[in-house]
Amino acid sequence: MDPLSVNIRNISKTYRDAEALQDVSFRIKRGELFGLIGPDGAGKTSLFRILATLLLPDKGTATVEDYDVVRDYKEIRKITGYMAGRFSLYQDLTVEENLKFYATVFGTTMEENYDLIKDIYSHIEPYKKRRAGKLSGGMKQKLALSCAMIHKPRILIMDEPTTGVDAVSRKEFWEMLIRLKGHDITILVSTPYMDEAELCDQVALVQSGRILSVDTPQNIIGAYRRRLMDLSASDLYRLKEDMEAYEHTHSVYLFGQKLHLTLKKDVAEEALTEYLEERGHRDLNMKSISPNIEDCFMELMVKA
Question: Residue 248 to residues 21, 148, 226, 230, 274: CA-CA distances in angstroms?
Fold first, then answer.
């Protein structure tokens, strides 16, 4: 069996009357790129703060590299790099000053671990004298990652690092993460973007504090059993309303400028076309398609 980096057992967390996490359990192998995938409010931040020893669970246990998150928090902080969801570096310090400060906190220097961060830091090094608060979203992201990596952590925890940055920066960031795996670092990343899930070795799909599925992206997609249809017409929103009212509809949801539809039983396309044309829909277009992670997530939500 591959050695574990993270082991979460029956973790729960409640804020007043709101259950942020409900009996969450899963394991992450050492050196894995693991994605926690779900919408805002799903419980991703609460779980990552528990693993980073910034928040206490109400019940359950969790270990990071065999250290208990409650009892051994000092040891975990030495071996963990953490990127918060919001930019949390010192806005009035320059890029270089921020990096030197974090290196000093962990008892190291920029020079000692420069080889680890050079692929990331090289993008912002030309702006090393610029204050952090004046950087673009993508540059702030790269600086935060450099600071999280400067002490050569064994585990890297990143809470929605690509939220609010442009598509090019998102692509660059994931390329950096995949390269970092070569340094034998376990990487945990949370995201609301379903397309990023397919870049992970393993993912946990989470909704309302509960885990819907934990597996490789390929296995999650491979377990999808329903016929999935791509459907569009001239009036998309009225089309959705009519499909929600259709007696054989299992699920229907917006997907860009189209609908993704599953049915309770196999219905001939001719019968479906007739139903919609009777309701005045024009420019109908429908075809069977293969599911992606987002379709699997929606199906699991229907089951839950």
Answer: 34, 51, 13, 16, 14
Q: Are residues 169 and 248 in the same domain?
A: no
Q: Which two tokens stand for residue 291?
A: 């599911």
Q: Say which CATH number the domain at 248 has.
A: 3.30.70.100
The total number of structural domains in the chain stands at 2
Among residues 11, 51, 1, which one has the least CA distance to residue 187?
A: 51
Which of 205, 222, 239 terminates a domain? The answer is: 222
**Sign, CA torsion 183/185/189/195:** positive
Q: Which long-range contacts (CB under 8 A, 24 or more apart) does 270-275 make?
A: 275/242, 275/246
230 backbone dihedrals φ, ψ, rounded to 5°:
-100, 125
pLDDT tens digits in sequence order for the chain, 304 residues long = 568 899 999 999 999 889 999 999 999 999 999 999 999 899 999 999 999 999 999 999 999 999 999 999 999 999 999 999 888 899 999 999 999 999 999 999 988 988 888 888 888 999 999 999 999 888 898 899 999 999 999 999 999 988 877 788 888 888 888 888 888 899 999 998 888 999 999 999 999 999 999 999 999 999 999 999 999 999 999 999 999 999 999 999 999 999 999 999 888 999 999 999 999 999 999 999 999 999 999 999 887 6
DSSP state letter for 84: -
Are 175 and 295 found together in one domain? no
Half-sphere exposure of 133 (CA within 13 A, CB side): 4
- The pTM (predicted TM-score) of the whole model is 0.89
